[in-house]
Amino acid sequence: MRSFLLAVAFATSLSSPVGKVVTTLQAMQTQLGKEQKEDTEAYEKMQCWCETNDKEKNDAVAAAKKSIDDLTAAIETGTAKSAELKATLVKLDKSVKKNSEALKSASGLREKEAAEFSEEEADLSSSLDSATSAVDALSKQNAFLQGAKPTAESLLQIQAGVRAALTRGTEHLSTRQQLMMHEYLQQPADFNSYNSRSGAIFGVLGSMKDTFTADLSQARKDESLAVSDYEALASAKNDEISAARKMTVDKTQELATTDEDLANAKHDKELTIKQLNTDEAFLLDLAEKCAEESKAYDNRTKERSVEIKAVGEAIAILTDDSADRKSTRLNSSHDLDL
Which of 61, 82, 108, 209 has its CA 20 to 30 A from that of 123? Predict the structure, then answer.
């Protein structure tokens, strides 16, 4: 009977107000535990996300700062190199112009010297021919030495030789010789008038022939040397001009590449700075959000712990043996009254 009554009392207690409260509290306790577990899992995922992003962004910031330093150095180097190449191109342009002007001037001088030589050579050749013809005429006719009269042709040749000596070889004649030559040309065409000066005239013309021969030979040597010097100078200047122009092409291409690299470096630096600013702003926001979330989680955990503790204590109180016995007595008394 006692066992029956206890079983009835226990069954009745489950449907009593206290039992309902205990059941509700137990359900609440279970829900709070579940919420705590879910909240912890969510918080751990959040923490993992915070740590992962913090590491990734800090690595990105460090890489960006290093890249900016490298790009800054590259920009400085590129700027200096660009300026140096531009200065080199200016020098090369000046060199080409200077050498071209020097070559043009040398060519002009060479043309002038060649024309002067051509004129001098023709003059010396003519004078030499006249002197040679005159000497030959005097030698063949032997007019003055043997008393024979020179032919008209011989006289013309001798006169041409004398004129050539006075025109071309004046600096080689003494005043007396010049006077004698002038007097020779002024004398009438009287054969006897040539006899008294024949030996002197022959000697002067022979000397003039040697002088004209030596002068012509020296003029040709000088011309040959001048041509050789000009050709050497022209070759050297053309080589310098060619080398400068080739270098200009190379340096121009190098400058284009340098300026392109410089522009790319500046563009990359600008983009990297923007990304760095974005990443640093993200890190600040991340730190703030993660800190707030951590603080909120701690607060929720404390509050939930208090709730769980309170529910546990309430359940413990409500399920205490004395409470159960009191509830049973009350229920039993109520049943007897019925």
Answer: 108
Higher pLDDT, residue 281 or 7: 281
Q: Quick one: tokens of 211? A: 């002088």
Whether the predicted pLDDT of 11 surpasses 50? no
Structural contact between residues 26 and 14, judged by C-beta atoms closer than 8 angstroms: no
Cα(56)–Cα(216) distance, integer angstroms: 94
pTM score > 0.85 for this model?
Answer: no
Yes or no: say if 120 and 219 are a contact pair by the CB < 8 Å rule: yes
Which residues 6+ apart lie within 8 Å of 47 measured at CB? 290, 294
Q: Give the span between the Cα atoms of 71 and 75, in whole angstroms.
A: 6
Backbone angles phi, psi at 21, to 5 degrees: -65, -45
Contacts of 92 (CB under 8 A, 6+ apart): 244, 245, 247, 248, 251
The CB-side HSE value for 301 (13 A sphere, CA atoms) comes to 13
- What is the reported pLDDT for 130? 74
* CA separation for the pair 81, 92 (Å, rounded): 16
In angstroms, the CA 223 to CA 116 distance is 10
Note the pLDDT tens digit of each residue in 29-81: 888 889 889 989 998 999 999 999 999 999 999 999 999 999 999 999 999 99
Beta carbons of 38 and 267 less than 8 angstroms apart: no
- Tell me the two tokens of residue 289: 């959000």
Q: Do residues 134 and 205 touch, judged by C-beta distance below 8 A?
A: yes
Sequence length of the chain is 338
